[in-house]
């Protein structure tokens, strides 16, 4: 198993006043060919948007775009006629397909903190679709809640609003947890798919605040097959291991850690 940390202080970052953002992968004016994508995972931005501001109406096509709301409220509008106010625990998925236009803005009087995630679809020219899901903190406490999964899999509804994971037209599953101090969770690399090796990306949500110099807060240890890496808030890790092998994510600090785990191809 190979675990390569992606440190928060090495991410692309910018403070535009209305927007404070970190880019795990190349995005906008930030480019690093060593961090362009990981499997089908193309964008992982950690954004904080000030009240009464946001991303104005703009277009996208041929990406699966989802928002994971950490704090505050996010207003989503799009050319499909959707208008929604998203809050903590909400996950919004837009399969842009042949093309959509949308806007994302902070709603209310508080800053909104959310993760903007893009993946590359396995099929082009799909019709644009929109989904929302909600997962409580209790559903994520000390367990892997599967919040995104490939469309068409058993238990994955294609309804606009439903329980269970949101469908994505990518070879990707996303899990979230709120891991208590001293608690740990195993995760087995999937055995389906091509080849003997599997890819996982782990991200520790930077809940303690925006600091482009360093992240504090939670401490997480990722280990498996003799490899081990310690991560702080805002850090991530590229992990490659054999299908069927098990890795472990452990809260090594003194506060709850909010963690996202991506299984990708």
Task: Explain this structure.
The protein has one helix spanning 137-140; strands at residues 2-6, 12-15, 19-23, 41-49, 54-60, 64-71, 74-78, 83-86, 90-95, 100-106, 112-119, 129-134, 145-150, 166-168, 172-179, 184-188, 197-204, 219-224, 227-232, 236-242, 246-251, 257-264. 2% of the residues lie in helices and 52% in strands. The model has no long low-confidence stretch (mean pLDDT 96). The strands form four sheets. It has a seven-stranded mixed beta sheet with strand order 1-20-17-22-15-13-14. It is built from one helix and 22 strands. The chain has one domain: Jelly Rolls. It is an all-beta fold and 265 residues long. This is Pirin N-terminal domain-containing protein. Belongs to the pirin family. It holds the Pfam family Pirin. It comes from Postia placenta MAD-698-R-SB12.
Compose a concise summary of this entry.
Residues 14-118 form the Pirin N-terminal domain. With 265 residues, this protein is mostly beta strands. It is built from 1 helix and 22 strands.
Number of helical segments with 4 or more residues = 1
For the biggest sheet, the summary is: 7 strands, mixed
CA distance, first residue to last residue: 16 Å
Going across the major beta sheet, what is the strand order? 1-20-17-22-15-13-14
Overall domain count: 1
The CATH topology: Jelly Rolls
DSSP strand content: over 45%
SS-based class: mainly beta
Q: Which geometry do the CA atoms define?
A: globular
Number of strands: 22
Return the CATH architecture. Sandwich
Are there runs of 5+ residues with pLDDT below 50, and where?
none
CATH class: Mainly Beta
Rg from Cα: 17 Å
- The average pLDDT score comes to 96
Helix content range: under 10%
Going by CATH, what is the homologous superfamily? Jelly Rolls
């Amino acid at each position: 198993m190979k675990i390569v940390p992606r440190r928060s202080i090495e991410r692309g970052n910018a403070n535009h006043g209305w927007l404070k953002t970190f880019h795990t992968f190349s995005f906008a004016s930030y480019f690093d060919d060593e961090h362009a994508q990981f499997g089908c995972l193309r964008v992982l931005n950690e954004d904080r948007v000030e009240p009464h501001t946001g991303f104005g109406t703009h277009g996208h096509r041929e990406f699966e775009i989802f928002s994971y709301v950490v704090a505050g409220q996010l207003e989503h509008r799009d050319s499909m006629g959707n208008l929604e106010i998203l809050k903590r625990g909400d996950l919004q998925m837009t399969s842009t397909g042949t093309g959509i236009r949308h806007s994302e803005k902070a709603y209310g009087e508080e800053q909104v903190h959310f993760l903007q995630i893009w993946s590359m679809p396995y099929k082009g020219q799909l019709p644009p679709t929109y989904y929302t899901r909600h997962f409580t903190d209790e559903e994520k406490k000390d367990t892997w809640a599967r919040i995104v999964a490939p469309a068409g899999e058993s238990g994955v509804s294609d309804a606009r609003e439903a329980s269970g994971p949101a469908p994505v037209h990518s070879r990707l599953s996303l899990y979230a947890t709120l891991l208590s101090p001293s608690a740990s969770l195993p995760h087995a690399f999937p055995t389906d798919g091509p080849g003997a090796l599997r890819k996982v990306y782990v991200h520790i949500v930077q809940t303690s605040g925006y600091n482009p110099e360093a992240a504090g807060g939670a401490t997480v240890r990722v280990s498996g097959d003799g490899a081990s890496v310690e991560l702080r808030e805002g850090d991530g890790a590229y992990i490659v291991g054999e299908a069927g092998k098990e890795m472990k994510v452990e809260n090594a600090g003194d506060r709850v850690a909010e963690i996202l785990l991506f299984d990708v191809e």
